[in-house]
Amino acid sequence: MVRVTKRYFFSASHRLHTEQLSDEENARVFGKCNHRWGHGHNYALDVSVEGPVDARSGMIVSREALDALVEGAVTSRLDHANLNSDVAELSAVVPTTENLSLLIRRWLRQSWAEAFGDQPLRLAKVRVEETDRNRFEVAG
């Protein structure tokens, strides 16, 4: 098995806030990420795929097919979005990057068979880099 990882980019905004906490608790828990008007990030998304090397192409996955999957399932839905209001799946949870990572994995899994058919590939990992200092990973 070989693993390939491709990096993608998108920009989005969010506000970390929950009605389950008081305004003071939200400010304490989420700090500057609780700013009333929200804030934005230029996210980097790493998608890792594992599979056997195809004898004919020498690759495990078509880069174009992977790009099409990520564009259709993820970046077209998130780029320049307000995660609080534009992404229905995040409306019931705090749109932390932890929750965002889980959602991205779910979207990729839902579109996987359509993108790759019966190819022996598996989603190995999703990694979302929110800032230079904060990265979030979820196994495929």
Note poorly predicted spans: none
Number of strands: 5
CA-atom Rg in angstroms: 17 Å
Mean of all residue-level pLDDT scores = 96
Strand order of the largest sheet: 3-1-2-4-5
Q: Given the structure, what is the number of helices?
A: 3
Q: Sheet with the most strands?
A: 5 strands, mixed
Structural category is alpha+beta
Rounded to the nearest angstrom, the distance between the terminal CA atoms is 15 Å
Please explain how this structure is put together:
By secondary structure, this protein is α+β, with helices and mostly antiparallel strands. It is 31% helix and 29% strand. It has helices at 23-30, 63-78, 97-116; strands spanning 2-14, 39-51, 81-82, 122-129, 135-139. Strands 3-1-2-4-5 form a five-stranded mixed sheet. A hairpin with a 5-residue loop joins β4 (122-129) and β5. The two termini are 15 Å apart.
Question: What topology does this entry show?
Answer:
Elements: E1 2-14, H1 23-30, E2 39-51, H2 63-78, E3 81-82, H3 97-116, E4 122-129, E5 135-139
Helix pairs in contact: 2-3
What would a concise description of this structure say?
By secondary structure, the protein is of the alpha+beta class.
Distinctive features:
29% strand; 5 strands; 3 helices; 5-stranded mixed β-sheet; alpha+beta; elongated; 31% helix; 140 residues
